[in-house]
Amino acid sequence: MDDLARHDSARGNPARGDPAKDALACLVGARIRTARRERGLSVGALADAAGIGKGSLSEIENGMRNPTLSTLYALAGTLGVPLATLLADHTGTTIASAGIAVQLLDVSHDGGHTVEVYRLRIDSGARHSSVPHGAGVTEHMLVTAGLALVGRVGEEASIGPGEAAQWVSDVAHTYTALGDGPVESVLVIRSPDGIGDIKNAGNIRGRGAVAPKHPDRNVRDLTRVPTQAAAALHTDGSLRDKSPQNASLGLWVRPPPRPAA
């Protein structure tokens, strides 16, 4: 497992001399620099749009600083690319911020979308706020242990083991661990290819964009999780129970009721 950023610092850590970690930090930095240049942005313009320091961004791009989860999400959202793109689709990579950590399990590209599968852990009592992602980006979170409150700000849903929530993440959204223990979960993010391909920093956050209509921004029961998550959900047979009529779409967190004999 490659640990890109530890949660002992909310602002990221300088490279620590671990060859594998240093190589990954350099790769991530190069991905960020390439995406920035493709959009015609200066270091200062990207840093300002993402809400991070210009010096910190320069260090990240040069592989001298390990970015936190919050920083990478801010950069990914500003550049209009999936988080996994900045990680070079490097499965096994773990990134963190205070109280929260994700490990990239799988990345696939299907039907004009990028699907990222992460193992997500939220420490007991922790609350993480995420910046808006691009238009059309959806998140599906399945809890395997603990109790979580997740979703769009003001529309959060409480979910426990075996339950899932789904929301469109084009606005600020949160992840909170309720109760006395941490939350263990699987998070699937589905992003349209080419989101946020914008050339100027003023519009790059999607200001003024119209949110797509979505009937189920937060869904607790019978939420479909994309099929790519199936391999990660081998903890309980009930979590792998597919609905026959929707097998091609994913798996049901809770199977639909069977008709009486």
Summarize the model shown.
This protein folds into two domains: 1-91, Orthogonal Bundle (434 Repressor (Amino-terminal Domain)), CATH 1.10.260.40; 99-196 and 213-254, Jelly Rolls (Sandwich). It has a seven-stranded mixed β-sheet with strand order 1-4-5-6-13-8-11, covered by helices on one side. The protein has a four-stranded antiparallel β-sheet with strand order 7-12-9-10.
SSE topology:
Layout: E1 2-3, E2 13-14, H1 19-38, H2 43-50, H3 54-61, E3 65-66, H4 69-79, H5 83-86, E4 93-97, E5 100-110, E6 113-122, E7 127-130, E8 138-145, E9 147-152, E10 157-159, E11 164-168, E12 173-178, E13 183-192, E14 224-225, E15 251-252
Parallel strand pairs: 1-4
Antiparallel strand pairs: 2-3, 4-5, 5-6, 6-13, 7-12, 8-11, 8-13, 9-10, 9-12, 14-15
CATH arch. level architecture of the largest domain: Sandwich
What is the ordering of alpha helices and beta strands? Answer: EEHHHEHHEEEEEEEEEEEE
Largest sheet: 7 strands, mixed
Record field, number of beta strands: 15
Hey, roughly how much beta strand do the residues contain? Answer: 25-35%
Helix content: 10-25%
Total count of helical runs of at least 4 residues: 5
Q: Identify the strand order in the major beta sheet.
A: 1-4-5-6-13-8-11
Assembly form of the protein: single chain
Low-confidence stretches: 6-11, 196-261
Categorize the overall geometry: globular
Question: What name does the CATH topology of the largest domain carry?
Answer: Jelly Rolls
Radius of gyration from the alpha-carbon trace, in angstroms: 18 Å
Q: Report the CATH C-level class of the largest domain.
A: Mainly Beta
> What is the total domain count?
2
What structural class is derived from the secondary structure elements? Answer: alpha+beta
Measured between the Cα atoms of the first and last residue, the distance is 49 Å
Mean pLDDT over all positions: 76
